[in-house]
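Schema walkthrough. Field components (list of strings):
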Amino acid sequence: MTPHAALAQGLALSLARAQFGFTIAFHIMFPAFSIGLASFLAVLEGFWLATKKSIYLDAYKYWLKIFSVVFAMGVVSGLMMAYEVGANWSGYSEKVGPILGPLLAYETMTAFFLEAGFLGIMLFGLERVGPKLHFLATALVSIGTLISASWILAANSWMQTPQGYSIDSKGDFEPANWLAIIFNPSFPYREVHMVIAAYLATAFAVGAVSAWHLLHGHKNGVVRLTFSMAMWMAAIVTPIQIYAGDEQGRNTLTYQPAKVAAIEGDFSTGVQDLNVIGWPNVKAGKMEDNLAIPHVGSLILTHDWNGTIKGLNDFPRNDWPVVVVTFFAFRVMVGLGMLMFATGLLSLWLRLRKQLYTARWFLWLATAMAPAGFIAIVAGWTTTETGRQPWTVTGLLRTADSVSPISVSEVATSFVVIFLIYTVVFGAGIRYLLGMMAKPPVPGEAPPPSDKPLRTAGKNVLAGAPLPAAE
Amino acid sequence: MADFFGGPLLPVAWAGIMAFVILAYVVLDGFDLGVGILFAVERDKPSRDVMVNTIAPLWDGNETWLVLGGSGLYGAFPVAYSVILPAFYPLIMLMVLGLIFRGVAFEYRFRAHTESHREGWDYAFLGGSLVAAFCQGAILGALLHGIRSANGQFAGGIFDWLAPFPLFCGLAVVVGYSMLGASWLYWRTGGALQERMRGHARRLGIAMIGLIGIVSLWSPFLDASFFHRWFAWPGILATALAPIAVAILAFIYFRDLGTGRPRARDELPFACTLGLFVVCFLGLGYSIFPLIVPPSITIWAAASPASSQIFLIVGTVILIPVILAYNLFAYWVFRGKVEPGAHYH
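Field assembly_structure (string):
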């Protein structure tokens, strides 16, 4: 290969990776928000059914409208991903097809249909099916989002920690043991960590919207209810997430030690310091300007003061992850996690002092934390995906062998088109979402707009709530 | 049995499942897309709101059949997937973009802050539906037209699909989806809107019969094997059956759309349109079986390993009936005519 051709090929690969990174980072925020909101809505409706207090129904209807837009954005941005994998990553999709294809088909049959089949009833059907069946629809949609997450995390975890396969004469993967494929070593850790992340991101978004309305004089029961629920989540679930993250880190140390070395900035093998921050000098193979705490790196990962961890310099250079990105993305995630932890603790203290809804400095803090969970999710995925490099399937299939034989101009064109379309479509969607969140929830909240005539007019099941009126 | 089909049964079963999934997508999202295309002739907001509301609770489930078509093809026939995707790359990207705009327009047109923005999303709904329908027809036509491949890899050019037959099929599917949409709306609306749909449905029905005739006469000449299948004994039997079925369905369709019939049943034209799609689809399957990517890749050559197909088929035969059952439940919940309501925003 001429140097020029090699350069072009490298550029096409980089562009294909950048495009995938852009589209998936964008996409993941919406399903994460959908997972969290769907469970939140199921809980709210469950409380409404149990207590018959209209405050829960008002909160339900307010967040249902937001959910409907978030869900639609998740569906359409996901549609793009499915075709991008086939188009830009044909080397990967062909070789991994016999394993990945059935997992994705099962995701469609067990999750997407369930969500889509009951979404219509959830959004528009309360009047038609009554509260109990409607609650069932909400619960099934939320279960659908969790099933979907499980399949996609099984597929991704298999790429991180593959097992249960054989390789045929053409070099394609063949499934040998489906249970081993699905329940691969990192799947349970990743599943727990991701679902909790979705819940936390949603809690901080709900908390921020509620805090904003509390700051602006809307102190009705609905606003206080959702703020209180969000802060309970922050206080209770953030510590659980930190524990889950630690467990996943230890699992990664066992199966993907090079990724851990990149995350920690450990270049030489031995007892490791904890590099709080610093600059990983990849060329020189050492940390520079680092703030390090002796022994704590080993303590966290091995739970042993003198545990040894293999450093990057003992891995072949061409098997190194994207060290700098992995290192910093991890610190963004952990930093935000600590901030969320602090917010949760502060909420407990203020709750004890009965100032949760009035301490303005804290309400501003909660408002500012709105994007924290989403940024942490994107940073976490960036850590685990760049940390898996240079492989798409750890140790078995290199990223360079996964890309389609596409030209720089083809991938650049599709990148520009996707970027522009995303800007228009999702720019508008985010604007509508912010517009909806800017309106405070009110008692007697209207359901999602459908302009649908109410066939049961006069027999309103929503006791005490007026019929859907103009927004 | 194996000899009857010319190869092992498992891929034949999968071909049947995939055919069902694709047919389900075509007729179900077909009427959704048709409703979108009919925005071209229904321009006032109240009518458009009613049209959207006939499908708003159902369209997402309908579109999911396309996702299953894609992921099922990938899981059961990965070679077909990896040949078809690059061969039709521009068409598929356009289709996806069309579906993106159509999909978000459902939500956004009710959220737009100004009337002109709402109109903008109405255009997105119309344009997205039109583009998606045309691309699906063109993909179908181009598949019949054949894809050049070697060793299970696409071996043609990026614009191979740009030929008269695929473009004509694109047009035919736009008309066919519009006919589905018009007969759906004739069923699910009332009053002046239903009356206008009666007219649209009649005109589109005539156009559709003409287009079916042209495509039927054209496609056997695309490939000698198609010709042989249709015009040699015993295929000639099917060749004779198809026009008879089309004639019966068309007769009922136009009879029921006639004015002044006191006992006319509003759902019958839609049912006849579904029937027409089924006949055309069966004819298509009959032409190409056992090929999955004409002119050379058979379902056996394209199949994934038996371990993949078996793992997937077990769940599929259980789950598809369940999926159909709860989708039918949703249709039943939202049954009845959608009237222009008093609760406008």
